[in-house]
Amino acid sequence: MTSNSGGNQSHPPVVYTPMNRIRPALAAALLSTSLLAAACGDAGAGATPTPPRPAATATPAPPPDPTAVAWDEAVQLIRDCRATMIMQAHSLDVWIDLDDGSRLTTKEPRIDLVFDVVSDAVANGCPQIPLATE
After folding, report:
1. What is the DSSP string of 40-60?
2. What is the pLDDT of residue 78?
3. What is the pTM of this model?
4. pLDDT on residue 105
């Protein structure tokens, strides 16, 4: 290949290196990716665009409180002399400590209604129940 007779041009020998193999593969990959991207863009030209997903910023709701009871059930527990201490918040949340050591929560329909329930329970034979309010 080094001599040139008869007008034939000589070409340097081609040495295959890993880069020689990667470049054609890289070019083919880039070409196919750009062709696919172009095809995807054209395919949806007449279709309704998909709205973007809302950002996942909302915190999932906690599971229901297993200690929460209905107001009527809480009233019955107080009347049955099961309450050992009761606390109420301005938010109408009420915490009731029971004689078995557990604590239940409820929501009273109006502020200070739990005081009336406790007064009735004590008047009907229940021991005094300590009350706390915020």
Report:
1. HHHHTSSSPPPPPPPPS-SPP
2. 98
3. 0.53
4. 95
